[in-house]
Specification:
365 residues, mainly alpha, 3 domains, DUF4407, transmembrane, membrane, DUF4407 domain-containing protein, transmembrane helix
Length: 365
């Protein structure tokens, strides 16, 4: 049962192969097994690749089956159409397009499996990339809000500087009228004279202005601080919004890029392994000597070709004979239109019967 299944996979004619030796049959069983297991590997590769895209096993399995069926049919077609010729050069020429197709299939199959084999190393590369993206996103968001935050900081610093300058002025006026009262500066007279009263009046006025400025500055600083907090909250929110997107940076394309960042040799050897598996049936048929099955297949094809060519020649001869008979009949009966018409009708019936008989004979062949 398994032997017949692998022969079916090889694309060989089972009736012809039954006439061959056990060794010849084993060769095609091996070819069929290679075609089958290549399709199995294609199923695993496609299923894993689609699972990384959809994060769901069901669509991944369905697409994997479709892809495996496609690869199976392509491999079976490639192997079954590669026929042994009398010239090795002709065999190589007909094998070249099939080898190119096999190379493409091998690359497509190997990539998802390489991603699975080097999964841990790829995860490390992706983590590094995600960190870079997070830092880059944070920097971009901070740059976006930097101008507004800088304006708020500048305005805050300006208000605080104005308040500090006013406090310094009030303190200086305070020290001035105290020194006047103590007689250490100014008029150098102890007591609260006219100059003292003038200086304390200036201080009191400045103190009133300072109190008013403190209230205004406090209100403005509260508003600025509130705006600053809103901007910082919005900034953190934008940074947080990008985190889920960055964390999902592990799709198929990202993993392929991460795989390309890894050393080339291990990945290359795995691809070459799949290339050998994919091209093994083609190379086996190409390098193997012409066997019993090849001779039987060639004999069968030549027999069908000869039979068809012979039947075509018979049909052409029949048409030529009918045309000659028709011309002779019309020449003899051209004076009688009714007889000419009857002759033409009879000739057509004869030819129609011959053609139908030929068609049945060709169909049976």
């Amino acid at each position: 049962m398994l032997k017949r299944f692998f022969i079916l996979c090889s694309g060989a004619d089972r009736q012809l192969l039954d006439k061959c030796s056990e060794g010849e049959q084993t060769k095609y069983v091996g070819i069929g097994a290679t075609v089958f297991f290549t399709a199995v590997m294609a199923f695993l590769a496609a299923t894993y690749a689609l699972f990384t895209v959809f994060d769901s096993i069901y669509p991944a399995v369905i697409f994997g089956l479709v892809w495996a069926s496609l690869i199976f049919n392509l491999d079976r077609y490639i192997v079954s159409t590669l026929k042994k010729r009398d010239s090795f050069t002709n065999e190589v020429l007909q094998a070249v397009p099939r080898l190119v197709l096999a190379l493409i299939i091998a690359v497509v199959i190997s990539k998802p499996l390489e991603i699975k084999i080097f999964e841990k190393e790829i995860d490390a590369v992706l983590l590094s990339e995600q960190n870079k993206l997070a830092l880059q996103n944070k920097k971009e968001v901070q740059t976006y809000f930097a101008t507004n935050l800088q304006d708020i900081k500048s305005e805050t610093d300006s208000l605080k500087a104005q308040l500090a300058a006013k406090e310094k002025e009030v303190n200086n006026l305070y020290n001035t009228y105290i020194a006047e009262a103590e007689g250490t500066k100014g008029t150098l007279k102890i007591g609260k004279g006219p100059v003292f009263k003038e200086k304390i009046a200036k201080h009191n006025t400045a103190k009133t202005e300072l109190d008013s400025l403190r209230k205004i500055t406090a209100a403005k600083l509260a508003t600025l601080n509130e705006n600053k907090q809103k901007l910082e909250t919005e900034q953190e929110s934008k940074i947080a919004q990008a985190k889920p997107i960055i964390n999902k940076y592990d799709g198929l394309m990202a993993r392929i890029r991460a795989l390309n960042d890894l050393p080339t040799m291990p990945s290359l050897f795995i691809m070459l392994l799949f290339l050998c598996v994919e091209t093994a049936p083609i190379l086996a048929k190409l390098l193997a000597p012409k066997g019993t099955y090849d001779y039987l297949l060639e004999e069968s094809e030549l027999a069908v070709k000869s039979r068809v060519e012979e039947q075509i020649r018979e049909l052409k001869l029949l048409e030529k004979t009918y045309e000659q008979i028709q011309n002779e009949s019309f020449a003899a009966l051209k004076t009688d239109e009714q007889l000419a018409s009857e002759s033409k009708k009879t000739g057509k019936e004869i030819l129609s019967g011959k053609i139908q008989a030929f068609g049945k004979k060709y169909a049976q062949a």
